Model the fold of this input.
Amino acid sequence: MSYPYMPFDDDRIRQLRVKLQKPYVAESLEAWLIHRRISIYATLMLNHIGWITPNIITASAILIASIGIVIIWLINPGKSIVVGLGLYQLAYLLDVIDGELARIRNQASARGLWLDKILEGTMNGLALAVGIKAAELSQPLWASGFLLTLFIVRMVSRNGFVLTSRQLRNKFPTTELRVRNPFINVISFFSSSSGWLLLLVVGYLLDRLSLFWLLGVGLFASSTLYQLHLFWNSLLENEDIE
Done:
């Protein structure tokens, strides 16, 4: 299986990557291409600072994302898109690091899983705030309400599927498709909150924000409908078994 790497990795780092990180088949595209390649070095540095625990890192990421939501509402829509992407990626990097630190110290806990769920919701809230601010520049008033509805449906269907599916084995059904088809992998990325934010930044820089906002919402809506479909099928599966 393929793991992230850097050209200057030594044998110890390569071994730690296999132990602490996810292979390509189980990782998001952006984390595999960017975050995981540098996170291992931050994890090793933080591992020598005893008072910094995985939960402290997760809490810091939650704080960054929360402050980001407030900042987004206080600055103009154009700046909010760029700032939102930067803060989101910083929180994402800390999310990656906290898992690696928990594994290297064998400190995985129920509290850590609970904090991860809070972080996921906060990061989605940050992406939603940026999307709404971008809509102020390029879309009619109803667009913000539509986007909010999409985010709610997406979170409910995704978490509902995880809770109800009897076939889930630490991966979504899209994993095999992503591995077999690089195009699906790219579409999957741009259907995520990170991909959505990147599309907004590109649209803003190219002065085509309206077009890229609609493109991002279209991909996001398609992904949301697919996750809703998975959730519905898992509910029907449970009813048949009962």
